């Protein structure tokens, strides 16, 4: 395998090194886009990783607002991008780093769409695998409003714990699958993923990290945790642990 260092972030000519054999793909959260990882992606590239990001789940008429459309379709978009990265880099598998909804879409791709064969590790930051009680419950909406909400932002509805999407993702009792590593980085002050256990995976191949462990003065909420240097340091350690 080539040991040429990364030529830069989102560089499809990058060839993984023997130290970092898996390209890293960042997946943004709801309402965000690929630009959210410009700085962190560049840092990974400078450290020798092949690092990438994409925008998924955006309407054509609002292309910079990602993560709002049907998460099944978003997972398919991620799958196509993974295939593209593997083809260009020659790597056998990728590592995925998902922020909030990014972890959800990644988990669905891995479990339901066959991604387990080509994903080595999923790192979730403020992750969500089982929905949140703060989501809109589709069944409680009148039919006309439900249809309108679906067209505008299906992902909002799919985050309801009792949605068909969440039921499928957690069939068999967990969103995780064997053969893939999972690292989950959470804050106890997360006020979006409720309850907190929705972002945890109770399986042998998962590591659940709480930002406040060893740093009680940390009060980062859902978004602050995603943006924090502390969470990124945990992400780097999780990725580098395979080297």
TrEMBL record:
<dbReference type="GO" id="GO:0016042">
    <property type="term" value="P:lipid catabolic process"/>
</dbReference>
<dbReference type="Pfam" id="PF01674">
    <property type="entry name" value="Lipase_2"/>
</dbReference>
<protein>
    <submittedName>
        <fullName>Lipase (Class 2)</fullName>
    </submittedName>
</protein>
<dbReference type="GO" id="GO:0016298">
    <property type="term" value="F:lipase activity"/>
</dbReference>
<dbReference type="InterPro" id="IPR002918">
    <property type="entry name" value="Lipase_EstA/Esterase_EstB"/>
</dbReference>
<dbReference type="InterPro" id="IPR029058">
    <property type="entry name" value="AB_hydrolase_fold"/>
</dbReference>
């Amino acid at each position: 395998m080539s040991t040429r260092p990364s030529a830069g972030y989102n560089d499809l000519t990058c060839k993984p090194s023997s130290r970092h054999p898996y390209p890293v793909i960042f997946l943004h959260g709801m309402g965000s886009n690929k630009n959210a990882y410009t700085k962190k992606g560049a840092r990974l590239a400078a450290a020798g990783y092949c690092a990438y990001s994409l925008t998924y789940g955006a309407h054509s008429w609002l292309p910079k607002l990602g993560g709002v459309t049907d998460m099944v379709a978003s997972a398919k978009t991620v799958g196509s991008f993974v295939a593209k990265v593997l083809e260009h880099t020659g790597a056998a598998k990728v590592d995925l780093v998902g922020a909030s909804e990014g972890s959800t879409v990644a988990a669905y791709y891995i479990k339901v769409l066959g991604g387990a064969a080509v994903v080595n590790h999923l790192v979730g930051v403020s992750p969500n695998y089982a929905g949140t009680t703060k989501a809109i419950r589709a069944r409680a909406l009148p039919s006309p409003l439900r249809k309108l909400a679906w067209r505008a932002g299906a992902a909002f509805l799919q985050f309801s714990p009792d949605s068909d999407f969440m039921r499928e993702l957690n069939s068999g009792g967990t969103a995780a699958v064997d053969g893939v590593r999972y690292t989950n980085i959470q804050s106890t002050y997360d006020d979006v993923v409720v309850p907190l256990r929705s972002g945890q995976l109770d399986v042998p191949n998962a590591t659940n990290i709480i930002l406040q462990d060893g740093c009680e003065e940390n009060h980062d909420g859902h978004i602050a945790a995603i943006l924090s240097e502390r969470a990124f340091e945990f992400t780097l350690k999780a990725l580098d642990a395979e080297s």
